# Entry
Amino acid sequence: MHGFEMVAHSSDLEPGKGMVIRIQGNRRAIFRDFHSKRLFCIDDFCPHAGASLSEGTILHEVIYCPWHQWGFKGMDGRCVTGSIWHVDSFEVVESGDSIWVSLEPKDKMPDSEPE
Ligand code: FES
# Structure
């Protein structure tokens, strides 16, 4: 899968909880939403004061920071709690028991679909 890296097995990820992964030396946070079961990946660094977002929670596809509860949409990393800040978000593909994450943020990915 060009432009993606396998980061975890499906069974590694508990719905509603985050997990930190490393891709090319960068920390990222992946989550499976408890209700929709959809997977999301964002930077593992809160732009407010630097908390690890993988230690936060996800509710209705919004990831909440563990320190001061800023919320970021899993889909695009936009802050939904009033800040103009956002975090990078990454494409996630689940294939069989494998979870793959894009190397580049969504807004920097080429238009083509993953192979
Ligand atoms: S460090 Fe994340 S909201 Fe403050």
